[in-house]
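Table S2 (text version). Query chain:
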Amino acid sequence: MAEAQIILSHSRESGIVAIASGEHYSWAHTALAESSFQRDDDGVWHLPADGAQTTVVDLVTCAKRHRTSVHTSSRRFIGDVARDLARLLPGQWHASVEIYSHPAWQEDLVPWIWDSGELGRAVQSDRIPYAALLTDMVQGTTLLFIERPGRQLDYLVGAFSPEGLEGGYGDPHAPRSIVLPPFPGRAAQALTDRYLPTYEQAVHARQTAAIAAVLGDIRSEHDTWQAMNASGRYGDATPLSAAALGAATELFLNHAWHRFLTVVDHAPTLLERCRPASSPWPDDAAALSCLADAVIDAEGQVDEIVHGGSVPEQERRARAWPAIETWLTDGQTFLRQARISAPDRRPALPVTAPARPLTAARPARHGP
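Corresponding structure-token output:
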């Protein structure tokens, strides 16, 4: 493949649009600028209305002078496709275009793609010079939407890692990306009925696992601290002074608090979904109520920190301990309830959208 390429496609609103790609994409930028194209904020080049005298042949000729090849896509501009899809999804979705002109920019996606299927593999092994982001403006879900490599019609869609949770390609909790057909109505239906429920269940499971891991870590450190406090010695039997014990206590409380922030971030949503009355353990309701109160207390302390409260650090850590201890005591009750709970379903599509193809004829070429 040439070191610099220009990919042309057709946009419903802008006519011919161009995207520069390759390690020397700046050569393509130069050719486009000399051919009267203008670049927008997304990095897409457009031929303005007053640039009608420029033809594709003119661009090809200019590109050759700058060692750049020109290719014409058989697909519609991906920004139009993504916007058509976003308009049909229930809720408030926003579509935007991402340009990965240099191959290294595409590599930046790898740690953030939360996928166990074809999309994750494609991002790592296929050249993807551009994509679209679909963002749920209310719930914050962000999806990556690309043309399926090696296919003329299909698209792939998958998710980025949820905010506050680590996990890239191959994460055991990650959902599998799906193939979308070249019809906006059917594509929206597949996203709404198949992918988004699977994604939300995966987020639920990932949040539950994150809380379980945090509580396990805190409990392990607490057991170590208790044993050291009871014996008056370090783990290697070295005597422990009162000052050292105090420092160890402060260190333990500090670590516990920072780990507990994961619980503060994710537990409220999961607690809302727990329905102990309809579970095998209806008596868990009281413990869940105590856990919710503990999170509220911790959230109050987070607000104090954010707004620069005057409580000394040592006192703040001590005040945080009762909430943490409540979760160490009843955390297993929460986990068993969370594991049998499920996220609320998003609203279904109100009507079946028309099956208008997402593809269109390639841009007309002028001249030979």
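Notes on Table S2: The two ends are 23 Å apart (CA to CA). Residues 351-368 have pLDDT under 50 and may be disordered.
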